[in-house]
Design goal:
mainly alpha; 0% strand
Length: 67
């Protein structure tokens, strides 16, 4: 009985991990195909530019605070 239960748990674990790791095919923010990081090419580029602008803005404020 213990062996059957252990085998069942192992099979279920593998099955759940396969389902959880299945690929995402559409963007998180629209219905376009995924380009990278779960986003389409447009949303990926918008987010990367936003992160760069935020980083530069933070650097400028840090420089102004030091003065």
């Amino acid at each position: 009985m213990k062996k059957k239960l252990a085998l069942l748990m192992a099979v279920l674990t593998v099955a759940f991990s396969l389902v959880a790791c299945s690929g995402i095919t559409h963007c998180k923010q629209c219905d376009d195909k995924v380009y990278e990081d779960g986003l389409c090419k447009y949303h990926y580029e918008v987010n990367s530019v936003k992160e760069k602008v935020d980083s530069v803005g933070k650097d400028i404020f840090d420089l102004l605070d030091k003065e």
